[in-house]
Amino acid sequence: MQPTIEPMRERDVAAVARLRLATFFEGTARTVEEDAAGLRRLLAGDGFEVAFVARLGDIPVGTCLLVRHELEPAHDLTPWLAGLVVDAGYRGAGIGSALVRATEAHAAVRGVETLYLYAWEARDFYAALGWNMIEIFAQDDETMALMSCQPRA
Fold first, then answer.
1. 43: closest CA among 82, 10, 68?
2. Which domain holds residue 21?
3. Domain count, the chain
4. Closest-CA residue to 100 (of 113, 82, 79)
């Protein structure tokens, strides 16, 4: 079954927040409620920033964001592809690539000429999708790669 990729709706917020918390914020003080509030701000925004969700049936299995601001103050660049995550049980089926492509297309339609992201472990994944390495740097004692692409609709 192929996933449906579309902008996140209110009905997705809790499940997406739990997925994001388990992936990005485990062991931190961040709560599901705090992450859900941030996702709701994206839903209520001006439409430029967006959270995409991948669904199999009615089950959210992945997400990816387009945001104006990412790690601060590492770089004064904008906008960012951020928060790509696919539930571990669904990885390797092209869902992450589909989420990245949906985010790139959204950016291109809104006139974005260069899109940025931070990654380290997933840098080869993004490179295979056409993203270019700009810089390797340290942020909070972690090695990070700054990457960019020219999004296409």
1. 10
2. 4-111
3. 1
4. 82
Please report, as a single letter, which amino acid is at residue 65: L
Question: What is the DSSP secondary structure assignment for residue 45, as one 8-state letter?
Answer: S
| Distance, CA of 63 to CA of 20 (rounded, Å) | 8
pLDDT tens readout for residues 101-120: 999 999 999 999 999 999 99
Asked whether 85 and 53 are in contact (CB, 8 A), the reply is no
Helix 32-43 and helix 13-24: axis angle, to 10°?
120
pLDDT tens readout for residues 32-63:
999 999 999 999 999 999 999 999 998 999 99
Residue 149 belongs to some domain of the structure: no
Kindly report the length of the chain: 153
Are residues 117 and 107 in contact, defined by beta-carbon separation less than 8 angstroms?
no
Provide the H-helix boundaries in 25-94: 32-43
CATH label of the domain that carries residue 44: 3.40.630.30
Which tokens belong to 129? Answer: 């999708």
End-to-end CA gap in the chain: 24
Instruction: Look at residue 74 and tell me whether its pLDDT is greater than 90.
Output: no
